[in-house]
Each structure stands twice: as C-alpha cells, then as structure tokens.
Amino acid sequence: MEGVRVLDLSIALTGPYAAALLADQGAEVIKVERPGIGDIARWVGVAVNGMSSLYLVCNRGKRSIAVDLHTPEGLEIVTKLAAESDVVLQNFRPGVLDKLGLGYEAVRALNPDIVYASLSGFGSNGPYRDRSAYDTVIQAYAGFASNQADPEDGVPVFLRQTAADKVTALFAAQAITAALFARAQGKGGQHIELAMADAVVSFLWADSAANEVLLESDGSQHSSFVAGFRPFRFEDGWGIVTPTSDADFAGMCKALDVEGFDDPRVATIAERVKHRDLVTEIVDMCYARAVNLTMADATERFEAQRVPFAMILSPAELTEDPHAVAIGMFEYHDHHVVGRVRLPRHPTRFAGTPAALRTGSPALGEHTDEVLVELGLGDRIAELRDRAVVA
C-alpha cells in the first residue's frame, strides 16, 4: 500500500486499529486528534509516560496532528488533508462530520476519487442509528454475549476484550483495500459504510447461528457446534482437545487410555451424532483420566496420536512459548515515549511485499508542524498555535 495516504479521523479502537493494519502494509497514515486530550484511547488501561498500550498498538506507524476542527482554520487544514488523501476513515455517529463539513459529500466534492469509510455502531439507517455504541453494547445486541452463555444456566457472558471493535476493524481494513482495488480498475472512489452490528453478525453467523440459518432444522442441536467444548484439567494446568474427525476422536481416547472408541455407534461422525449419550459417557471418561496427567505427559501422548490440541497459555506464557519464539511471533522495539515494547508481528507473511510494524505510535501532535509545512502552511504555524487552532 505504499503511496496510499489515509486520513484517520477515528478514535478509540475500531477505526484506529484498521488504519494501523493499513500502515503495517505500507500506507501513510495521518491521524487527526483533538488538542489537549487527543484520542481518548491514550487514557484507557495500562499506560507509561501518558501513552496507553491500547493507543500504542492501534496507532503504530502513524503521524499525529493536533487540530481543533471546531475552528474555521482547523477545518480548513483537515479539509486540505482530505483533498490530498486516498482514504478518509472516521467512526463518529452518523451525521456528526456532515455537520462539521467533513462528511462524504463535502469531501467528494473536493476529491472525487476518495474512498471514504464511515464506521458506526448501528449504521446510518434504522431506529438505532443515533445510539451510542461501545463494544459491550454491540456484543449484547449482535449475539456475542448470548453465544458465550453457559449452556447450563443461560447467563450471558461478555468476552473480556473489545471483540466487536476488533472484528469491525478487520472488516474495515478489508473493505478499504477492496475499494482501493476497485478504484485502481477505473471504478472511482466510493463511500463505505460499516456498522459494528453488521460486522459482528456476519462474523458470528459463520459458525454460531446454525438453527437461524437452516430454518428447517429440528433444533435438537445447539446453534454453535463448539458450544459443548470445555477445557481439560491436568495435574498442573489446562488444555483443550478438538476431536473433529473420526481419527481425532479415536486418537483422543487412545491417548487417555479410554476404551469404547471402536464401538460402531461412535466410530464415525455420523453415528456419533445419533448416539450423543454414549459419546458423552466416553468423553466424560476422557476428562476423568486427564486429571492424572501432567501437561507434559498429555502433550507427549496427544502428539503421538496426532490429536488436535493445545495447552492453555496466558499472554505472558505465550511470549515465552518455544513455537512463538521460533517463528518470531513477537517483536521488541524501543519506543520514544514509553520505552521498551513487545508487539506481535503483522500476522500475514507476504512473500513479495512484506508487511512490517512501524512502531512509532505518535505523541499528541508530534507531527503537526511537519504536516503543516507539507500543506504549504509553514509560515502560519506560530499564528495557528497562538490561536489554539493547532497544538
């Protein structure tokens, strides 16, 4: 994406994370922030020297310009940036930037080829369009909380991460690159609208809404085919086994010295669906046997049977895991604000055009002067700063 300029007007996580992924792939990203406070993400969670981990991760590789959009001069600066950009990304409620004069139609009038991405909670139409939508709101509405509920008591459970935000960011990054590809084919710029609710529903329904997809199903199975999976307890920790194929199921039983897997009623996946009670008995015995094994013993047995499994690791444990270390899953950098940092590398490995972390997440307004000079406003920097238009 070298040569693509992204104007990032977004805040918090959804838009910023999407833009960070584009920066990893070579895009130039200019982040516009409010003077004084900046992006609210700067202040959320663990922080060092006034910069949070959340902000650092989601704003890597960007330049920050602090501009007051509520002043005519500030609006003029950002409008100039929009006119010279390939992508504008924003995640305010529908209509907010239109009132400021930075909505899609206003930007398109200056830059007909712009790819303008609008992210919101519920979209620009419908009775919920004006609702504030934080991550847990969307987790509740779009199905995550219900999907995570314990099958026994039905109490909804929220994922202990901003999953709705991050899912939306992934969809947004893909949509922006698709729109840029369309533009490269001569189809011009366009307005992309992406609601968090739509993104989460699309993500969830791939595997967790089976009865809602197959309207003629008998409803005898849970909509999520992994709903019954639960972790194995070992002597010194936890793990998971996912026995999907017939060989997987037999291998799990063999590894744990459990008999009965060769019974014709459980030997194939089709028969296991018909005889769930018997399957439950065998699986329960597997769980009972697992508690007498250490994680190392279980690992050796599962690997010998080629069973799909993993031991449950904390983020801290993962950073020291032999496989993670061998593949270079994490990178270490010295950051000019927070000091030493550890970040996961960009997950996709491109053979011809490798992505790379640009780790210099900016201090608030760190690049204001630099960007103003590029816009031809270098002789007005002192005046604009004295009048609190920029910082």
* CATH level 3 topology of the largest domain: Rossmann fold
- The structure class reads alpha/beta
The radius of gyration computed from the alpha-carbon positions, rounded to a whole number of angstroms, is 25 Å
SS strand fraction: 5-15%
Write up what this structure looks like.
- It is a single chain.
- With 391 residues, the protein is of the alpha/beta class.
- A 6-stranded parallel β-sheet has the order 5-2-1-6-7-8, sandwiched between helices. Strands 9-10-11 form a 3-stranded antiparallel β-sheet, with helices on one face.
- The mean pLDDT is 96.
- The chain starts with a strand and ends in a 5-residue tail after the last helix.
- It folds into 2 domains: 5-204 and 327-386, Rossmann fold; 232-311, formyl-coa transferase, domain 3 (2-Layer Sandwich), CATH 3.30.1540.
- The longest helix is centred in the middle third of the chain and has 25 residues, at 163-187.
- It has helices at residues 14-24, 53-58, 72-83, 96-100, 104-110, 135-142, 144-147, 163-187, 196-205, 210-213, 246-255, 269-274, 276-290, 295-304, 315-320, 322-327, 368-374, 381-386; strands at 5-8, 28-33, 47-48, 51-52, 62-66, 87-90, 115-120, 190-195, 232-234, 237-241, 309-311, 330-335, 339-344.
- Helix 1 crosses helix 8 (163-187) and helix 6 (135-142) packs across helix 9.
